[in-house]
Amino acid sequence: MSDILPLDVIGRRVEVNGEYATVRFCGAVPPVAGLWLGVEWDNPERGKHDGSHEGTMYFKCRHPTGGSFVRPSKVNFGDDFLTALKKRYVLEDGPDDDENSCSLKVGSKQVQTIGFEHITKKQSQLRALQDISLWNCAVSRAGEQGRIAEACPNIRVVNLSKNLLSTWDEVVLIAEQLKDLEALDLSENKLQFPSGSPTLTRTFSTLKTLVLNKTGITWTEVLHCAPSWPVLEELYLKSNNISISERPVNVLQKMRSLDLSSNPSIDESQLSLIADLPRLEHLVLSDIGLSSIHFPDAEIGCKTSMFPALKYLIVNDNQISEWSFINELDKLQSLQALSCTRNPLSKGDKAEEIIIAKIGQLRTLNRCQILPEERRGAELDYRKAFGKEWRQAGGHPDPDKNRPNAAFLAAHPRYQLLCCKYGAPEDEELKTQQPFMLKNQLLTLKIKCSNQPEQQILEKQLPDSMTVQKVKGLLSRLLKVPVSELLLSYESSKMPGREIELENDLQPLQFYSVENGDCLLVRW
């Protein structure tokens, strides 16, 4: 804290008693004597007014209570990069470092924020530092030109999130002294970006990961700066209220991973503007309000040319409620992994099973590997569940008579393929089941822990419609063993000594002909 003000005080980021703000005014505020700073708080609840006092407007705020006047002596304008680095890695070592140690991520890289005693003697020297975190260290400027390069020339990974950097130009002054910089996190710095394309330099010539979450950057500003990031592979733009307004032409062509989550202005039509990125493998679209997607260049059963390299798609926390969304994803030629949690569509009991059946090349769903037997079970169940609808739409086991209508094919694009793979559903499969009566469907089963002979044999009544997965869940709670470690089989009372493995978690007990008096065998 100091009464000496920077020359470029307007627009500077500051910290006051732990709260962050931007300076919007510097001068007198009559009738009170002395110098005042008018600040706009990041948290508008911290303020008192809209930048006016006694009828005079001194500065403007986006929120009616976002502004305050504070004395310069109360304001922290921050430190230069090297001063903050020395405080974190050299001067603040001591016996309490163990308690303060933690780690942060810069993109996909883990960065240790520990003090002097937890890095080797060589690493404690500034020149030996390669991965650093200055998270929440009040860094506001580069400092004297050349000092960073002289003191710590080998830095490759930098976390500068939640600091007091005000402009992209100040970031450039830091980065141009780090010739080997590969990863940079600038999240939660309210940055002013250049309005036009900056002069091309080699400042970011080695940068592969850039995190700009909550920086206020726009898509236009991204494209203006992108020519300076020639080898960028990972870009994180979470929570910036971004709208994709134009295609990236001759920029971002090496980008493999893009995070656009929590940008509610992005819609389906805007996604088409980034669909031609040739190397984009990982796309995060969580919490953007997405409800639909369409690839107009591909007909039913065909693959789209859009997003040609996309392997991993995350669309959690959206408004996806129609199966047409999942049908469209099957058109993506490279898709292998999908995360689709906390959507209206995913609330049904069989939602995951249907997604597996609808997207043929999917290997991972909601971060869980899809095993071959799980896929087979899901596809067979799907084929059976919609078999009657298929027949009513014109489907037939005889290929010469099999002509389902366009509406059915649009709703179930893979159904014909599943019939080719497993055969058309038989009449017996499509018969309506008798109404479920619990008393007639309960099985009394013994439960024996095969590799735990001291464990008492249990006896339980279970519905024959209960899936193997749900049985495992029940046993997991009873035996205090993780579900993933449980293996189930059973011995029939009619065939003593013969053990039958319950290998498909999605199938009910009745699928395996489990009957009253049989014994479930549990191993882990």
Automatic annotation (TrEMBL):
Its main location: cytoplasm. The keyword DNA repair does not apply. It holds the Pfam family CAP_GLY. Gene3D superfamilies: CAP Gly-rich-like domain, Phosphatidylinositol 3-kinase Catalytic Subunit, Chain A, domain 1, Ribonuclease Inhibitor. GO terms for cellular component: cytoskeleton. Signal peptide: none annotated. InterPro entries: CAP-Gly_dom_sf, CAP-Gly_domain, LRR_dom_sf, Ubiquitin-like_dom, Ubiquitin-like_domsf, Ubl_TBCE. It is found in: Cytoplasm, Cytoskeleton. Keywords: Acetylation, Chaperone, Cytoplasm, Cytoskeleton, Leucine-rich repeat, Phosphoprotein, Repeat. Coiled coil: none annotated. Residues 27-71 form the CAP-Gly domain. The keyword Ribosomal protein does not apply. One of its GO terms (biological process) is mitotic spindle organization. Belongs to the TBCE family. Tubulin-folding protein; involved in the second step of the tubulin folding pathway and in the regulation of tubulin heterodimer dissociation. Required for correct organization of microtubule cytoskeleton and mitotic splindle, and maintenance of the neuronal microtubule network. Supercomplex made of cofactors A to E. Cofactors A and D function by capturing and stabilizing tubulin in a quasi-native conformation. Cofactor E binds to the cofactor D-tubulin complex; interaction with cofactor C then causes the release of tubulin polypeptides that are committed to the native state. Cofactors B and E can form a heterodimer which binds to alpha-tubulin and enhances their ability to dissociate tubulin heterodimers. Interacts with TBCD. PANTHER family: CILIA- AND FLAGELLA-ASSOCIATED PROTEIN 410-RELATED (PTHR18849:SF0), LEUCINE RICH REPEAT PROTEIN (PTHR18849). This is Tubulin-specific chaperone E. The gene is Tbce.
